[in-house]
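Recall from the previous lesson that a structure prediction takes nothing but the amino acid sequence as input. Here we apply that procedure to PGG domain-containing protein from Pycnococcus provasolii. The sequence below is the only information supplied.
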Amino acid sequence: MFLTTTCICVVVTVTITITTTTASISDAMNLANELNVPQTCLDFSSKPLRIANAKRIQAANKEQPTMPLMPLVDVLLLDTARANGDAACVAEALAAGANVDVVGEDGISAIGHAARHGDGKAVAELLSSGMTRDSDAGARTGCARWRCGDALRAAAANARADVARMLLNAATDDLHRAVDDEGRNALHVAMRTAARARGNADVRRKAHAIAKMVLRFAARVNDPEYADIPEESDENFTALHIASAAGDAEGVKFLLELGAIPAITDANGRLPRHVASNSAVLEQLPVLSNDAETLVDGTKFGKDDGALVGIIHTDYTPAPKRREGQSTWTWWSITPALLAFVLLAWSIRALVNTSAVSKS
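The prediction returns the following tokens.
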């Protein structure tokens, strides 16, 4: 009896599974036909698309839908880019009418997702589609700030130097100036990526390459102030502050070479020199004089008008940073305690010896 029941349960389970699978395949085929894309392209987002399809059907049955629903082909484009899908499927979604500029609920566009994954082919497809659409509309926005800003920051955050190069080469405006909610532009993000890399030389090298690209792009579009823009955060760090605090001597060096000013203070009145975390960084940063116009060696410093930007300090010496888990005790701090202990031990021994002699 038990064996019979078990067999029946297994047969029912297999039947339900086969039925569900067949229904899923049927749904996917119908959806692929509806969207006019290959069924394989649904592998990246079949579940979200089915959910979106169900919502759309429910909304269509209502006389007044509560909110407009995203076209399924746009959902396909976003999900394919988000899942690092095949660039060919990105092209299929675009050919089926997907909006190249669609943005998901997370605030990230399809090109932003593709840039995060370093999918150069998908980025190229999205750029080409955007430029084609702009051309048909009689405009030329290309890789504009509003379209590619999040993509450039995503490339910087993930050290995707090849993608950053593609985006900057396609830029048609001040793309480098696009910022996130914390006021961080691509240069800030690239320098923070290099700071986080620490022992990963390859990531740091690529992040540095992106920072240099962005700075050279700024110079090409005549934006000399770009290197010194602070973040809109509690600290208001510039790129030079970020590199100095991270102990990134190489980053400090090329930032100075490409025009960053070491005399701009953060929200707490600190220069990059004041937040430097090692001597290699301090060697790169000049010591500034109190006259707010010249370096210690007498040479002038500043922008075109020669004025020095920021408040100047020369009497500030940054305290060495203590490593996590490192004790605050030093030999100098414990020497008096050791001497006192030795003296106490000697005194006790002398008393014991004196007592022993007296008894004898």
